[in-house]
Each structure stands twice: as structure tokens, then as C-alpha cells.
Specification:
GO terms for molecular function: iron-sulfur cluster binding; metal ion binding; oxidoreductase activity, acting on the CH-NH2 group of donors, NAD or NADP as acceptor. With about 475 residues, the chain is of the alpha/beta class. The protein is built from 19 helices and 16 strands. Bound molecules: flavin-adenine dinucleotide and iron/sulfur cluster (SF4). Flavin-adenine dinucleotide binds next to helix 10, strand 2, helix 15, helix 18 and helix 19.
């Protein structure tokens, strides 16, 4: 156990964010480093619970009390070994995970949870700094060849596990660079792309082969795919965005979040994109959707120099405390203030958009909205509350409905569920014998931690299918849902 009295003597302390007026002038990450001594004190708050609910909260089953104890003792090398035992990419989850482990932490019943995510992040960063993250090349090559389609966190986790098991793994990605939403969705201020590139370099040295700029189903036909590979892992994400079919959707100035954010990410790195500019500079921006993707649009628009940003949400404002129906250790819907919200903009709740309004040249000039109240699960417009919100740019951040159904998915002939997701059994196997699926494509729009957990588990199934051995760990069965999500 870490410090036996730590949870009584030490208050929770998270790292400071850089001052708002400085950070919105650049694209660098928002958080500052915490003194290692302070981090140790924080890790020392862990009670090493008999039943560590943090484990159940984490889809990866991270061995949290073990590495809390090791960090408290200063045993950094052992700590990273325990962390890597369950998580291929702690530098992604340490920055980006909403940390269901923390909402499940036992201390959270009547005090502030252990800063698990911060201990995770610092453990991996110390390991990179000290050269403890080295390529893990396989002892022998099996001769089996596997295609992983899609290079987001699910595809990358599956590829790393299968490469380390001795298979030859080729990762196909239709975008010009590898990384999926880690590269083109998540803004630089949440995770700098050099963090992704650092891990990709390790994977390349281990032997994983990357083929960006190849759309499977178009540049590589399904017939070629089937003839070349012993097994196929679909990790193509849930990229089909939700539309808002109301009058005026076609006006200039109305974009989907995932049309806007990739452009912003390229702009942040001065990679001058070929696509037309979608720049918020000098504009009044409205974001439709109160979730995390909306917050990413908000932070991007502020950095581009938007005149104002309003984020609107159809749901009522969540409460600041856990609602009665979502007690510990569940992951509650509460009012959260992300770093982007701290930087500016306004959030408006219980409001629905009825129409986009344009000037004579078809350029967006306002949104016509109405206030709503929630009654029996339905949003009822409040008569007389209609009004306009003036803006020159509207960004639709209303989520994703599942994988794209045309192209690869259609040609392969995989079965879909009622929700339009790729159907799989508990072993992540589709209706086709040597075709497996993991991440958002099979699960629906979700989280990085889930994508990694599913990628690891699908890799274990593929390895078993090809070799009949059980050498890779299964993190979670496809149908399993841990306690906290
Ligand atoms: P993806 O990351 O979507 O990757 C799928 C890849 O497959 C894409 O690159 C796509 O181009 C490629 N592809 C598709 N079809 C083909 C084809 N035919 N041939 C070749 N390649 C193909 N989660 C968090 O936990 N924390 C966050 O902070 C967070 N922020 C987010 C911000 C945004 C803007 C969005 C949209 C999502 C965010 N998420 C976040 C969710 C998280 O990013 C996803 O759950 C996760 O990336 C899913 O991983 P994946 O590997 O299944 O798919
Ligand atoms: Fe430590 Fe919290 Fe996990 Fe208990 S639940 S072992 S206090 S991190």
C-alpha cells in the first residue's frame, strides 16, 4: 500500500493549466507539469482497496493501486512495466480519457478521488524521458499476415499486440497520415501530435507496417485484401456523422465538426491544407451540440480568433453534483468545465435550432432557435420563445451514427446490427470467418480507452484463430460493460 495515511493527510491536487490569455495564443497543450514530489504525495492517497473499484471503472482493467504504490515509492521503471501490462498507449489515455476510474474510486464516496489519470500520464512521460520505452520485437515470426484497416487507437492497439506476437501486420489508413481521430479529430491543445508520432516510431521499429493514403475498398479492392491476408481486422471507426436536416442546411458557413477540426489540426501544425479554409477568424460562431466534440470546436475557434462563440445544447443544463439516479461508482452526467470552456465562449442549454438563415448571397447570417422543456423524454418547444442568434459560422457537433455503410463494409458483406454497427460475437469475430472488428466500428461512438481495450482483445482473438494458442491477454469481451460506463 502507498502512504497508509495519505488519504487522510493530503488533499487532491491536479496540475495547473497554463494561463488562458497565453494559451489561446498558441496550440500547445494546456496543462503544466506537476512537481514529481507532489505527484508522489497524490499517488500516496491511494488506499489499496481490498476491492479496487477503480479497476472495474477502467475498461482496460489498469492495475491502478499497484502503480500508485510504485510511484509513491519512486520505483518508476516497475511502475511503467505494470502500466504497459494492460495499456499500450497510456500517453493517450493519460491526456484524453474522461477517467471513469476516478469516478469509481472508493475515496470518491465521501471525498475527492485519487488523481489516477495524472499518475498514469506522468509514469509514461517519465518512461519516455528516461529511454524506458523501447521497441518490443517478437522472438520469432509466425509467417501469418494480417491487415488492420483504420489507424485510430483501436487499429493501433490491435496492430501492436499482433506484431509483438510475431505476425506480419499491415495497417491501412485512407487519410494522408496515421492516427485516426487521434490525429485529425482531437485538437493539438489536448494532445500534441508529436506524442502520437513518438509512439508510431516505436511501432515501426517493432515491425508494424503503415500504409497511409490507401482506402480499402477503393485503392485496394476487397478481392485483393482477401487474397493477401490470413486475417483482417476492421477498425474503421464510427465516422458517419449525425445530420441536422432543417431548412438552410446547405448555406455557406454551416459545417460538420469533423469537416472543421481536421482543418484546424493541420493549421495548428502549419501543414497548409489543400482543402478550402474553414477558419473562424473574426466570425461569430455557434456550435450545435454541448459535448466534448463541441468543446474541441470551441477551443479551436477561440485560437483562430473568433469574435464570439456560443455552444448550444438541446438538453437541460446538468447538475453540478451527481444526480440521485447515477450514484458512485457510475460515471455521472454532471456539469463539467473543460479547459476550452474556461477559455471563453458561452454555453446555452435547452434550446433547439429550427432553421438556418442566410443573406441574399446564401451566406449564413443567423440561427432561428426556440427554447425547449423536456417532458416524458421529448423536447417540447416553448411557444413565443423563438429568437435568432446572429452568426457567420455554425458547426454541427451532434455525434456519429456508426460506420459508413457503403464501400468496404458493403463489399466485404459483414452483417450489421439494428443500430448499424458491425455485428460481432464475444471474440470480436464478424459473420465472416477471418474478419474481426474492434473500436467504434463495432461498438459505436465511444472513447479512446474503449478503442484500446477492444483492439487488445480483438488481437488476442485473431492470434488464437491463427495459431490456436492463448498468448495475448484479453482485456474485455465484446459484450461486456464495466461498472462505471
Ligand atoms: P477512429 O479513431 O475513428 O479511426 C478510424 C480510422 O479508420 C480513421 O482514420 C478512418 O480514416 C479510417 N478508415 C475508415 N474507413 C477506411 C477504409 N476503408 N480504408 C482505410 N482507412 C479507413 N475520446 C476520448 O476518450 N477522449 C477524447 O478527448 C476524445 N475526443 C474526441 C474528439 C473528437 C472531435 C471526436 C470525434 C472523438 C473524440 N473521442 C475522444 C472519441 C475517440 O476519438 C474515438 O472513440 C476513438 O478514436 C475510436 O477509435 P477507432 O480506432 O475505433 O476509430
Ligand atoms: Fe486506490 Fe481509489 Fe483504486 Fe481504492 S479505488 S485502490 S483508493 S485508486
Amino acid at each position: 500500500m502507498a502512504d497508509p495515511k495519505g488519504f487522510l493527510t493530503t488533499d487532491r491536487k491536479t496540475p495547473e493549466r497554463r494561463p488562458v490569455d497565453i494559451r489561446i495564443r498558441d496550440w500547445k497543450e494546456v496543462y503544466q507539469d506537476q512537481e514529481f514530489h507532489e505527484l508522489q504525495r497524490q499517488a500516496g492517497r491511494c488506499m489499496d482497496c481490498g476491492i479496487p473499484f477503480c479497476h472495474q471503472g477502467c475498461p482496460l482493467g489498469n492495475l491502478i493501486p499497484e502503480w500508485n504504490d510504485l510511484i509513491w515509492r519512486g520505483e518508476k521503471e516497475e511502475a511503467i512495466a505494470r502500466l504497459h501490462a494492460t495499456n499500450n498507449f497510456p500517453e493517450f489515455t493519460g491526456r484524453l480519457c474522461p477517467a471513469p476510474c476516478e469516478t469509481a474510486c472508493v475515496i470518491g464516496i465521501n471525498a475527492d478521488a485519487v488523481t489516477i489519470k495524472q499518475v498514469e500520464l506522468r509514469t509514461i512521460e517519465e518512461a519516455f524521458d528516461r529511454g524506458h520505452v523501447t521497441p518490443q520485437q517478437p522472438d520469432r515470426i509466425t509467417g501469418k499476415v494480417i491487415a488492420v484497416i483504420g489507424s485510430g487507437p483501436a487499429g493501433l492497439a490491435a496492430a501492436q499486440q499482433l506484431t509483438r506476437a510475431g505476425h506480419t501486420v499491415v495497417v491501412y489508413e485512407r487519410a494522408e497520415k496515421i492516427g485516426g481521430l487521434l490525429r485529425y479529430g482531437i485538437p493539438e491543445f489536448k494532445m500534441e501530435k508529436r506524442i502520437l508520432d513518438r509512439r508510431l516510431a516505436q511501432m515501426e521499429r517493432e515491425g508494424t507496417r503503415f500504409r497511409p493514403g490507401v482506402e480499402v475498398g477503393r485503392d485496394l479492392t476487397v478481392a485483393q485484401l482477401k487474397s493477401r491476408y490470413d486475417a483482417i481486422v476492421i477498425a474503421t471507426g464510427a465516422t458517419q456523422w449525425r445530420e441536422l436536416e432543417i431548412p438552410g442546411r446547405e448555406y455557406e458557413g454551416v459545417y460538420q465538426a469533423m469537416e472543421y477540426l481536421p482543418w484546424g489540426n493541420k493549421q495548428a501544425l502549419s501543414e497548409l491544407p489543400a482543402e478550402p479554409q474553414i477558419d473562424a477568424d473574426g466570425k461569430r460562431v455557434v456550435i450545435l451540440g454541448g459535448g466534448d466534440t463541441g468543446a474541441d470546436c470551441l477551443g479551436t475557434a477561440l485560437r483562430q480568433g473568433a469574435k464570439s462563440v456560443t455552444q448550444i445544447e438541446i438538453m437541460p443544463r446538468p447538475t453540478e453534483e451527481r444526480p440521485d439516479g447515477q450514484p458512485w461508482p457510475t460515471y455521472p452526467m454532471v456539469y463539467r468545465v473543460s479547459s476550452a470552456h474556461e477559455e471563453g465562449g458561452e454555453r446555452v442549454y435547452a434550446i433547439a435550432t429550427q432553421e438556418f438563415l442566410a443573406d441574399d448571397e446564401g451566406r449564413l447570417r443567423a440561427l432561428k432557435v426556440v427554447e425547449t422543456r423536456l417532458e416524458d423524454g421529448k423536447f417540447i418547444p416553448i411557444p413565443g420563445s423563438e429568437h435568432e442568434i446572429e452568426c457567420e459560422m455554425a458547426l454541427l457537433a451532434m455525434g456519429f451514427t456508426g460506420p459508413e455503410r457503403t464501400g468496404l463494409i458493403e463489399e466485404l458483406g459483414v452483417t450489421l446490427t439494428d443500430r448499424g454497427l458491425i455485428a460481432r460475437d464475444d471474440e470480436y469475430q464478424t459473420n465472416l470467418e477471418n474478419v474481426f472488428v474492434c473500436g467504434d466500428a463495432g461498438r459505436g461512438q465511444s472513447l479512446i480507452v474503449w478503442a484500446i481495450a477492444e483492439g487488445r482483445s480483438a488481437a488476442a482473438s485473431v492470434d488464437r484463430y491463427l495459431t490456436g494458442r492463448n498468448q495475448l491477454p484479453t482485456t474485455i469481451a465484446a459484450s461486456e460493460r464495466p461498472l462505471a460506463l
